[in-house]
């Protein structure tokens, strides 16, 4: 059932209203302000420590910053399949490190509030639609995150995207594969850092 659910979510995401170039540009331009507001909103939440599994708040801040950078490129390239798979990865990875699943709808609501307040209405409308869609499918993300992920050789996807980037003659497509390669490296670095932190916590 889970592979069919994942594919259904990819198809549904592809049917969302396209994010305009103006919206993608505004989101990127306001990225730091958006992150700062989401951080403040979560820090002021009365159950924030429970939501993040009593991890340092810096781990939450890192997630918000990486989320914003990732979403800026999702909006730019309309990379819906990657969005769906990465959301599942984030739910699984952060929950395994102690974050409550309840953290994610609170976080997504904070992103919606920040976008609504900091972006012009016309630019933010389709971006808000994406965040609302992500929040509406919270139970699906939890269900998918509960399934153990296969473990392909680390770095394989990054090498594949880098190869496609070098072989591509179209500028826009080359930029997409270049970004995917960089994202895979960031993804790998984040996973390695989380694993290191977990080992240090266990063996300290």
What does this structure look like?
The chain has 204 residues and is an all-alpha fold. It folds into two domains: 2-149, Globin-like, CATH 1.10.490.10; 151-204. Helices cover 79% and strands 0% of the residues. It has helices spanning 2-14, 21-29, 31-43, 48-51, 57-77, 80-96, 103-118, 121-136, 138-145, 156-167, 171-203. Helix 3 packs across helix 7 (103-118). The mean pLDDT is 85.
* CATH class descriptor of the largest domain: Mainly Alpha
How many domains comprise the coordinates? Answer: 2
- Helix segment tally: 11
Q: Can you summarize the main beta sheet? A: none
The SSE string, one letter per element, is HHHHHHHHHHH
| CATH topology term of the largest domain | Globin-like
| Number of beta-strand segments | 0
Structural class: mainly alpha
Mean pLDDT: 85
What does the overall shape look like?
globular
- What's the Cα radius of gyration? 17 Å
Q: Please name the CATH architecture of the largest domain.
A: Orthogonal Bundle
Provide the low-confidence segments as ranges: none
Question: By CATH's scheme, which homologous superfamily of the largest domain applies?
Answer: Globins
Helix content: over 70%
Give the distance, in angstroms, between the N- and C-terminal Cα atoms.
40 Å
Proportion in β-strands: under 5%
Q: Which structural traits does this protein have?
A:
Globin-like, mainly alpha, 2 domains, single chain
Write a concise synopsis of the structure shown.
By secondary structure, this protein is mainly alpha-helical. The protein is 79% helix and 0% strand. It has 2 domains: 2-149, Globins (Globin-like, Orthogonal Bundle), CATH 1.10.490.10; 151-204.
